[in-house]
Design a protein that fits this description.
A hairpin with a 6-residue loop joins strand 1 and strand 2. It contains three helices and twelve strands.
């Protein structure tokens, strides 16, 4: 199809379920030809951000009202990771919000409507300057929130991940300017990139089945994260990132 190829974006009649068609480029894939976890998380962030922009709350609009939108937790199940040049459809929608968290679900399909990935995430809004967490009802004056509780996707619960008592240090990562996003802190996808970069080589060739991450304290420019790992089951590992003032993130990977 070449230059005549078309990709669509649309909403279902409910006004909340957002569909985006796209193709996986070479630059988002690793040596195995599969999309990287880092690029997948960036894609889901970009599409969810585009959804809320189209419904009236762009990041610029929120910033002008001293509001930052940040992800608190992610959980994804990978039935199969998309590959180079593959055409996919990403479907996302907000479920009914809690008092201080927005719930969002995702599904990714291939061109034949086979389910590739399913997931959920929890988002928060904070004061841009003080980082004080704001109630979700703050957004209701700007856009409509979905009053319906959506069916849960077939991924692990987007809940709290417990840190094991005994963990082994596997590396350090200093935050550079290239790691920062528009909220002036480390973009959420980079934490996953740090995890994948420091995992032992034995996991490099294993397909990732489940990925969960809790974001606790933002990592800022110049700060150094110490990464620690522990096995929690035969094919499951926990990786945490710690700053001087405490835990920055806790992640869980199942292979």
């Amino acid at each position: 199809m070449g230059l005549n190829e078309n990709f669509a974006r649309w909403y279902d009649d409910d006004g909340f379920t957002f569909h985006v068609e796209t193709r996986i480029p070479f630059t988002q894939c690793g040596p195995d030809g599969k999309m990287s976890l880092f690029d997948f998380l960036r894609l889901t962030t970009d599409i969810s951000t585009e959804d809320v922009r189209l419904r009236g709350t762009s990041m610029g609009f929120l910033a002008s009202h001293n509001i930052a939108r940040v992800v608190a937790r992610n959980s994804f199940r990978f039935h199969r990771m998309p590959t180079i040049d593959e055409r996919i459809e990403v479907v996302t929608a907000e479920s009914k919000a809690e008092s201080f968290q927005f719930n969002r679900h995702y599904q990714v399909f291939d061109s034949e409507k086979n389910l590739l990935i399913s997931g959920s995430s929890k988002w928060m809004i904070t004061s841009f300057d003080t980082r004080k967490i704001l109630p979700t009802k703050t957004i209701e004056s700007f856009r409509k929130l979905n009053p319906e509780v959506l069916p849960k996707p077939d991924c692990l619960p987007c809940g709290k991940i417990l840190e094991p008592e005994k963990m082994e240090k596997i590396g350090e990562q200093t935050i550079r300017r290239s790691n920062l996003d528009g909220n002036n802190h480390t973009d959420n996808a980079f934490y996953a990139a740090f995890v994948m970069s420091f995992l032992p080589d034995e996991y490099a060739s294993k397909p990732l089945i489940d990925f969960r991450i809790n974001y606790s304290k933002e990592a800022l420019y110049g700060e150094t994260l110490e990464l620690f790992m522990a096995k929690s089951a035969e094919n499951r590992v926990i990786v945490t990132g710690k700053k001087q003032d405490g835990i920055s993130f806790v992640s869980e990977l199942t292979f």
